[in-house]
Amino acid sequence: MEVTLQAALDALADPIRRRIVRELAAVPDWTRPCGTFAHLSVAKSTLSHHFAVLRGVGLLEQRDEGTRRLNRLRREEFEARFPGLLSLVLAEEGPAGHGEAYEEGR
Amino acid sequence: MEVTLQAALDALADPIRRRIVRELAAVPDWTRPCGTFAHLSVAKSTLSHHFAVLRGVGLLEQRDEGTRRLNRLRREEFEARFPGLLSLVLAEEGPAGHGEAYEEGR
Questions:
Q1: Which of A37, A73, A102, B24 is positioned for an S-S bond with A24, CB 3.0–4.6 A?
Q2: Which of A2, A4, A5 would you mutate first to test chain B, the one with the most B CBs within 10 A?
């Protein structure tokens, strides 16, 4: 199913979703479980919704490993569909996705 | 004043505004008055708001000529600030901005 520009813009117009994207871009694929985004201070159900929206526009791939749900940003695939759009999000100033907000293994 | 990515995405997440942008891209600068967008079937005040939003993110320049308000799409300027974003909008499928919907001099 082809993702529409409308859906992509709607997905990325949300600042929390852009932050999730930037945080995932800052770590290797499949290393960051969904459970490590609690610092974003949104309800767990809201966070699940954000992940679902990002999956829906082809920006995110997820797989379960034991009790953890791991994430991969579909950078190349999304770039092929919407050239330049992801780069704008990653270049945006704002919380970067490492440092105090998230530590491996926490 | 630097336009934020948030403002740009909010502006372009609206399908009517993207259509205005595509229609303006289809004609030479300063040839298309605001009064020729009545075919979009939105209230005049709504249309004014859409134009204001597009001006606000640096996508649109306007000048008055007699009783007409003419438009110029700030393509190069917007492209320099948000590389690739305008191209995605212009490549989007949808009403193109010429043909039956608008005729010069109507």
A1: A73
A2: A5
